[in-house]
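Exam review. A common question shows you a sequence with its structure tokens and asks you to describe the fold in words. Practice with the pair below. Do the first one on your own.
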Amino acid sequence: MDFNRALSKRVRAYGAAALAAGLCVSVGLGAVASTATAATQRATPPQLQSVTVKPYSGILANSKKVSLYLLTVEKGGKLHCTGICLTYWQPLLVPTATKSIPVAKSVKGKIGFVKRTSRTKQVTFNGYPVYHYTGDSGPNQVKGEGTPADGGTWYLVNAATTSVSSTPVKPKG
């Protein structure tokens, strides 16, 4: 599968219009952006849930059990992951008109949003923007955990916390 088709498939799967728009600036994929934007405007908001992926339990995931991550330097909704970063870390996006998203009972933190583009906003959890990692090729994977980047570290999200300080899932030991 060529890069444009693979990217287009992933954009539709995650409803990531802003990712496509960001990549258009970075790598010139103009045709993908308009398709992705239209898809995001029609997309059903993702449901957030808590999943267990050994050795971690209670991590935040989307309705397809794809793990969600945060970047520690983005506390308070300050976006640092832009440009090439978006190639690997895809924002969990919703259309700007979205007021709330479905959340399982096991998810205790505060859900919010931060503006990403004129047509999309990114889901936040306890003030941290949340992302999918492209290295996780499907559900129940956590390959991005502990990755250093952009002056911070990528961590899984603790779905059961309401505390900002305990939102990142950090390795034990």
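Now try the second one, then compare your answer with the model answer below.
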Amino acid sequence: MSAAADDPAPKPFEPAQLASPLLRRFHAYWDSKRGARSMPSFADIDPLEFPWALGNVTLVDVLYDPLRFRYRLVGGAHVTRLGTDMTGKLVDEFASPTLRQILSRTYTEAVQAAAPVHRTRWEVVAGVNHHYEALLLPLGAAPPQVDMLAICAEYIDRKSLR
């Protein structure tokens, strides 16, 4: 898989795009926490309030000057799929340059948008099946600056869609 098969140009997010009930529920949680603001802060969310999603949630710290991304928490479903726990590590530490590029580009897009970003992927990258639907949600104490991304992803087996 080459990086040439990149994600299409981003479209404005619409909750109706979400096929996964898990992602719809996680978005509703995030939306309830933001109130009238463009995004909630990390202090507004409480993982004890979404135990139904914890294995599918990854929290990514956004570091500036230069823009980089560090994994604060990686859900068990992601660790199992990737075969490595990136908690405490930078995206730059992934062994696969293709995976680093895809993740960095997607996270950068979410930070620049300062709004939800929805992705589906049906590819094999660095020998790992990346068949999933994901929702990247910004968190920030002083919007529009994004301090963290809360990412909820559900891995999908194509056979289950038949």
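Model answer, second protein: Confidence is low (pLDDT under 50) at residues 1-6, 158-162. The first strand starts at residue 57 and ends at 63. Full marks require stating both points clearly.
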